[in-house]
Write a structure and sequence with these properties.
This protein is α/β, with parallel strands linked by helices. The chain has a domain of 136 residues: P-loop containing nucleotide triphosphate hydrolases (Rossmann fold, 3-Layer(aba) Sandwich). It has nine helices and ten strands. The strands form two sheets. The chain has a six-stranded mixed sheet, with helices on both faces. Strand 4 and strand 5 form a beta hairpin. The longest helix has 22 residues. It is globular, with a radius of gyration of 19 Å. The N and C termini lie far apart (44 Å). The structure holds adenosine-5'-diphosphate and magnesium ion.
Length: 261
């Protein structure tokens, strides 16, 4: 079976600040994600997680290497990959529903189809009744629901999320985590999820790719075989959770020590 997503021998260099040379940001990154699999990327700040997600989306090009999405090489952004940003990135002059259907408009879907999808998405993320509000009139948690609805509206083959809960307070974060988890249980989606939160990575993932820094590269793949559906409280109290967490912590703290050295 063709994997939903395949990253092959990916290298990325950026120009150094003095503009005189290049530095390696990502080195020899290789992994696949199967259809419906939830894969997290975890690693210290600056290890290239956002860059990798942007390359998978097509917003950024690789220096060398390939991204294959369901057998087709990714060259530029298209509706087969949906992206959810940390800072929501909503259009302030568009209402909730207008933000959700933005990608459908760009794609040229007719009005009937746009409205059908909008209704489904509003219902899915629990925002029915707020469709005519503007982003500044709703909370951060609700804004991120719009961001997620906008990405899912296009029914992407792969969902890419870059620290989607990072800008939210602890309680909103927890609530949204549970809701997103429930949404993905109902409608499994191949997902690539960037976080630096170990608990979040374990809670959501089938597999966690642990990144090291300078240069960014995968140092270990950690499989999470906790049964689904997962209840946040039960999971956190389990022996397997504690073991995974200790293991991730050891890997990441070793990387941080290298950073400090
Ligand atoms: N457009 C760019 N030009 C030059 N350097 C960049 C650019 N984008 C990111 N970088 C550098 O690449 C490295 C990885 O950044 P990033 O992907 O944002 O890391 P992370 O998301 O893991 O924190 C950092 O050193 C950052 O400064
Ligand atoms: Mg980042």
């Amino acid at each position: 079976m063709v994997p939903a997503l395949e990253v092959r021998s990916l290298y990325k260099q950026f120009p150094t600040q003095d503009g005189e040379g290049f530095h390696d940001v990502l080195v020899d990154v290789n992994f696949t994600a199967e259809a419906g699999e939830f894969v997290s990327l975890i690693g210290p700040s600056g290890c290239g997680k956002t860059t990798l997600l942007r390359i998978v989306h097509g917003l950024e090009t690789a220096t060398t290497g390939e991204i294959i999405c369901n057998g087709m090489e990714v060259k530029k952004p298209d509706h087969r990959r949906g992206l959810v940003f940390q800072h929501f990135n909503l259009f302030p002059w568009r209402t909730v529903v207008e933000n959700i259907i933005y990608g459908l408009e760009v794609r040229g879907d007719d009005r009937g189809r746009r409205m059908d999808r909008a209704r489904l998405m509003l219902d899915l993320v629990g925002l029915s009744g707020f469709e005519n509000h503007y982003p500044h009139e709703i909370s951060g948690g609700m804004q991120q629901r719009v961001g997620i609805a906008r990405a899912l509206a296009l029914d992407p083959e792969v969902l890419l999320m870059d620290e989607p809960f990072g800008a939210l307070d602890a309680i909103t974060r927890e609530k949204l985590q549970r809701d997103i988890s429930a949404i993905l249980e109902r409608q499994p989606k191949t997902t690539l999820f960037v976080t630096h939160n170990m608990d979040e990575a374990i809670y959501f993932s089938d597999r966690i790719l642990v990144f090291g820094t300078r240069p960014g590269r995968i140092i270990e793949e950690v499989k999470v075989s906790l049964p689904r559906p997962r209840q946040a409280d039960t999971i956190r109290a389990s022996q397997e959770f504690a073991e995974l967490r200790t293991h991730l912590w050891q890997l990441l703290s070793k990387e941080m020590q290298r950073e400090d050295a």
